[in-house]
Amino acid sequence: MSAAFVFAAPTRLCFVRHGETEWNAGRRIQGQIDIPLSALGHAQARATGNALKDEGFAAIYSSDLARARQTAEATAHLARLPLQLSPGLRERHYGAFQGLTHEEAAQRHPADYARHHARDPRFAPAGGESLLDLAARLHGTIDAIVRRHAGAAVALFTHGGVLDILHRQATGQPLTAPRDFAIPNCGINWILAANGCWTLLSWAERDHLTSARDEL
Length: 216
Known about the structure:
By secondary structure, this protein is an alpha/beta fold.
């Protein structure tokens, strides 16, 4: 007797990086420090809400960090949907690097920053997460959301380090490879999830923005 296979309807995932913060502008590593949006970030959030309000989302999720939540609130309000907060969508925890600029981190922790810059997937800054830790956290979080909303469209507001992992998962690019794709503030990114496979539909849409700073 042959086994029966059940194919779930594909889920359209719209991932959005949060709007700009003052720390983004100063190239300061935020990680899980809870930094709010700047005035520009709030304007980007409103523009994103207007761009996404008619997408017919079944649900809207956000990292519970203020910069992502504040960005998501504009879309949730215009789409008339409740905003569901998920700690699983938080930025990578950068441990001892958090609060420092990239230059300061390289000066104060030269050996560790070199491993970070080289994208060593097992390296975790003191007190923080490795790329492998982050990827495992995201896999569990997003897989649960996909199962909950099979066949629907879902918006997820998150962070640059998270989007770096998600793009690689959708394209098969290894964690160790240098990044060759943009992750702008409030860029809109679409991924199709079906039966455990991800397909990249579009990335870093920003026609709705007057300006956007890349994650790097």
